[in-house]
Design brief:
alpha+beta; 4-stranded antiparallel beta sheet; 1 helix; about 40% strand; flat
Length: about 80
């Protein structure tokens, strides 16, 4: 794996709602373990540590698995 030694910025194909239409999302990976997110053609960037992103993703997966398990139990109970 290549270590991240300088910032890398990429434009995604995903769009977010923005006043007057939608804009693509720009993602920047910083070497100090941060991720920057901003709408294309704007300057204001929201920055979040990579560890927080992983924690959020993990919690979302666990919640989805719990909900699927709960729905499966409910469906089994109705039959």
């Amino acid at each position: 794996m290549t270590p991240l030694t300088k910032s890398v910025t990429r434009r995604t194909d995903d769009r977010i709602q923005w006043p007057g239409g939608s804009k693509r999302l720009v993602v920047t990976l910083y070497p100090n373990g941060l991720i920057g997110l901003r709408p294309e053609k704007t300057r204001r960037e929201e920055v979040i540590p990579v560890t927080h992103c992983y924690s959020i993703a993990l919690k979302a997966r666990v919640l989805a698995e719990r909900e699927a398990k709960r729905a499966k139990r409910r469906a089994r109970a109705k039959t």
